[in-house]
């Protein structure tokens, strides 16, 4: 979903007379933390899909490290309102993940509507919403079937909105403003 958001943001940025090269003029610190964080998540998902390990204390610790790195990145760039907006989205995702044993709760209804298998725990850091799920409404409850099939959360929407605004406004930024 973030890849599609990046592509759409660049297209919108160009439509609004921006230039991708203008992103060089955006003051952003510690971007490597974002890449490390997403690498950690990618590593966890691949290992779960390959049955190297299941969701548990190890994935909980790795998830914690990932979110700590994201918090440091967001704090380092707290003057940029779009990065702060992304951070709010990440926080809204972290809450249900950490309150539910390190897995994002997913609605069976949203998964079915998006054409996603209900064996969701083998797809990554996900678990189906049940009667014991805490803050289920912050989980992946919204089916999205545009371009690819997803079940997304309110946090995803806010994070993607922040990312898109960051790219679009960054593309419009020149060296003097």
UniProtKB/TrEMBL annotation:
<feature type="transmembrane region" description="Helical">
    <location>
        <begin position="55"/>
        <end position="75"/>
    </location>
</feature>
<dbReference type="InterPro" id="IPR035168">
    <property type="entry name" value="DUF5317"/>
</dbReference>
<feature type="transmembrane region" description="Helical">
    <location>
        <begin position="150"/>
        <end position="171"/>
    </location>
</feature>
<feature type="transmembrane region" description="Helical">
    <location>
        <begin position="82"/>
        <end position="99"/>
    </location>
</feature>
<protein>
    <recommendedName>
        <fullName>DUF5317 domain-containing protein</fullName>
    </recommendedName>
</protein>
<keyword id="KW-1133">Transmembrane helix</keyword>
<feature type="transmembrane region" description="Helical">
    <location>
        <begin position="31"/>
        <end position="49"/>
    </location>
</feature>
<keyword id="KW-0812">Transmembrane</keyword>
<dbReference type="Pfam" id="PF17248">
    <property type="entry name" value="DUF5317"/>
</dbReference>
<keyword id="KW-0472">Membrane</keyword>
